[in-house]
């Protein structure tokens, strides 16, 4: 039995690192983004926002195992999507065999890729906080995962996908995850509609310290996000980890500097935005570029999305019209596409060889010109731009169709009474009063009255009162 549990093709160190990396990515969502979303919004939306993230994580896992994993990385059905089947539930057979990448079982790949899919949906939710009908969100998640995410993942990451064969470089998800979530979130926000005018005018975080805690989990979890992309505990994984944190720190500092110069004071929320754009921008390039290039990418990711968010957004009628709650289009869509283009410019051929193997196609334009083969570099930049165009078009089209389909079943937007009350009206729960005076807890389906007790949060006290 020991031999069967550890076949000759299994590299235990790689397997252990891949499971650890997947767990780090999972922690970015639960509790990372659950905490960040629950604290960065108004108090009345704290429960609903956190719950949207928690629900998405659970729903994606079930769908991923039943059909979506194989649609993303299975046998080809079409050049852009795999054939769905139940292999993701076959622990004794398919999942125990070596996966399509790495020296470990397919079950490890299934888990690693699941946490990427889950965080993509949670990032989409960031555009919709403060007004989307929770029941509509429950339907949206499996539909969007099935008809958008699987297509992007198969096309870019599967060895059988047409963009993978075309040579598009996306080291760890700048396209598949971040550009997708940015465009999909913005598109869904258009169809769902805006928050109330009062919420759009004033939407202060209810707990900045918890926002920093969630952001910290997101930053540190990115060690697994990019460090796990090589599918092995090798030197490329180490390079990816260092570049990730170097780019992120640079981006945060540049964003902070711009806030200080333009607005006269450093902003905690601004620093978090700069951190996120740095993490996103380096993702498609993490193990493919030198340290100086990672810092250059950080300088650009701290300034270009800052400009699109602080300047362009206010001057564009379309951008200003669509209520993208957490500016996911800028922090993930703009930063992800920026990182994709910079990958095509700055990818170092030796590092690219560690990831893609001995293939001369994978080279940044800067190095290609230096080596006297500018044509290869221009082809790579063209491939990167084509990948961006495909992901943008895919997510505008599919997200629109999914939203319109969901709208046939339930309203996409909460009604005016629910929008005014927030968590109490939607869930019967309040972020900070549940264990206080107990008013909200009493009305909750989990409260005292639900179990037949009088309207008090302390049944024992109620019994004592009756005796007196």
From TrEMBL:
InterPro entries reported for this sequence: Ammonium_transpt, Ammonium_transpt_CS, NH4_transpt_AmtB-like_dom
Source organism superkingdom: Eukaryota
Signal peptide positions on this chain: none
Pfam families: Ammonium_transp (PF00909)
An annotated Gene Ontology molecular function: ammonium channel activity
UniProtKB keywords: Ammonia transport, Membrane, Transmembrane, Transmembrane helix, Transport
Domain Ammonium transporter AmtB-like: 16-432
GO cellular component labels: plasma membrane
Annotated membrane topology: Multi-pass membrane protein
Compartment(s): Cell membrane; Membrane
PROSITE patterns the record matches: AMMONIUM_TRANSP
Transmembrane segments: 16-38, 50-69, 110-129, 136-157, 172-193, 205-225, 237-258, 267-286, 292-313, 325-347, 385-410
Function, in words: Involved in ammonium transport.
Family per similarity comment: Belongs to the ammonia transporter channel (TC 1.A.11.2) family.
NCBIfam families documented for this protein: amt
Protein name, as recorded: Ammonium transporter
């Amino acid at each position: 039995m020991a031999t069967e549990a550890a076949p000759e093709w299994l590299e235990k160190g790689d397997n252990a690192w891949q499971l650890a990396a997947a767990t780090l990515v999972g922690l970015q969502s639960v509790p990372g983004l659950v905490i960040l979303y629950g604290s960065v919004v108004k108090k009345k939306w704290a429960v609903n926002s956190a719950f949207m993230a928690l629900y998405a994580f659970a729903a994606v896992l079930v769908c991923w195992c039943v059909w979506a994993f194989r649609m993303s990385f299975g046998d080809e059905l079409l050049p852009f999507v795999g054939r769905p089947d139940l292999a993701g539930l076959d622990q004794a057979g398919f999942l125990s065999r070596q996966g399509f990448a790495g020296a470990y079982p397919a079950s490890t790949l299934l888990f690693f890729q699941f946490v990427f899919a889950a965080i993509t949906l949670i990032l989409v939710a960031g555009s919709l906080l403060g007004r989307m009908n929770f029941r509509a969100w429950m339907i949206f998640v499996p539909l969007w995962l099935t008809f958008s995410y699987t297509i992007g993942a198969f096309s870019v990451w599967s060895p059988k996908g047409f963009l993978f064969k075309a040579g598009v470089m996306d080291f760890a998800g700048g396209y598949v995850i971040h550009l997708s979530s940015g465009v999909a979130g913005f598109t869904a926000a258009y169809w769902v509609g805006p928050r109330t005018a009062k919420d759009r005018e004033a939407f202060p975080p209810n707990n900045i310290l918890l926002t920093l805690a969630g952001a910290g989990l997101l930053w540190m979890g990115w060690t697994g996000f990019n460090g796990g992309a090589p599918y092995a505990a090798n030197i490329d994984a180490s390079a990816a980890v260092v570049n990730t944190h170097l780019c992120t720190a640079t981006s945060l500092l540049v964003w902070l500097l711009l806030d200080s110069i333009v607005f006269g004071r450093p902003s905690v929320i601004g620093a978090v935005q700069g951190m996120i754009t740095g993490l996103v921008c380096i993702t498609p390039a993490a193990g493919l570029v030198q340290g100086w290039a990672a810092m250059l990418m950080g300088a650009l990711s701290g300034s270009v999305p800052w400009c699109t968010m602080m300047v362009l957004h206010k001057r564009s009628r379309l951008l200003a019209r669509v209520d993208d709650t957490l500016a996911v289009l800028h922090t993930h869509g703009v930063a992800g596409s920026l990182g994709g283009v910079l990958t095509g410019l700055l990818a170092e051929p030796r590092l690219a060889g560690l990831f893609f193997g001995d293939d001369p196609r994978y080279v940044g334009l800067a190095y290609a010109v230096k080596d006297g083969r500018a044509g290869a570099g221009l082809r790579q930049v063209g491939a990167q731009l084509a990948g961006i165009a495909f992901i943008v078009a895919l997510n505008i089209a599919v997200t629109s169709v999914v939203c319109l389909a969901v709208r046939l079943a339930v309203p996409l937007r909460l009604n005016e009474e629910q929008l005014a009350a927030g968590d109490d009206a939607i869930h019967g729960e309040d972020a900070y009063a549940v264990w206080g005076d107990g008013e909200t807890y009493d009305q909750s389906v989990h409260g005292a009255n639900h179990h037949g007790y009088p309207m008090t949060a302390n049944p024992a006290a109620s019994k004592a009162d009756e005796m007196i």
